[in-house]
Amino acid sequence: PGDQEAGELGLAAVPGRQAAFRQALEAAVHYARAVGCPRIHVMAGRVPLGTDRAAVASEMETTFIENLRYAADLLSQENMTGLVEPINNRITDPRYYLNTSQQAAAILKKVGRPNLKLQLDLFHCQIMDGNLSHNLEMYFPLIGHIQIAQVPGRHEPDSPGELNFPYIFELLESLGYTGYVGCEYAPKGDTLEGLGWLRSYWESRGLQHGGTSKAAK
């Protein structure tokens, strides 16, 4: 994430911070190797304070592409995947550089590395674009990781909100998604109590806690 006390939230697209980005990436690889994690979120970063987004967009994209290629080459040596995540600039972070799936897909195409993927957080995607079914289908070949939270409260999937998660989970299954679904939400109360939605979902699908089939038992 860079120097968070100085207001940074990632370095990969920030001009002038290339050396710090490479140093941070090496540290991230070290930790990922130690815990056996095959994916690293390469955070784009924020538009620098006092600058106009449109005025620096081209320079930030060039920096981002160069850094992503460097990251991809380094991660390929470790058999790891780099992930880029659009973060909405309407509610969460007005200055974050990477905001939409369309922007991320265009940059990944320009980078042209197979071990760089889209980290699609459905919370951010719904706020920026909506049309989740179509977007999941369209960007599915690029997706390396999925994250979820209800909109607009960013709480548990069964909390009041805009998204129908049982439908979304079935859509992911029908598309052939076999990766993890990250629960990047803020629990309304206790964390374990907040996982009651998952137990209820498993039971609705005829599964025991842990996602194993009752029939298999």
Automatic annotation (TrEMBL):
Print the keywords alphabetically: Isomerase
Residues at the active site: E85, E184
One GO molecular function term of this record is: hydroxypyruvate isomerase activity
Which part of the chain is the Xylose isomerase-like TIM barrel domain? 10-200
Which biological process terms from the Gene Ontology are attached to this UniProt entry?
Answer: glyoxylate metabolic process
Pfam families (UniProt xref): AP_endonuc_2 (PF01261)
Q: Which EC number(s) are documented for this chain? A: 5.3.1.22
Q: What class of enzyme is it?
A: isomerase
Catalysis: reaction(s): 3-hydroxypyruvate = 2-hydroxy-3-oxopropanoate
| Family according to the record | Belongs to the hyi family.
Entry function: Catalyzes the reversible isomerization between hydroxypyruvate and 2-hydroxy-3-oxopropanoate (also termed tartronate semialdehyde).
Return the protein name.
Putative hydroxypyruvate isomerase
> In which organism is this protein found?
Sylvia atricapilla
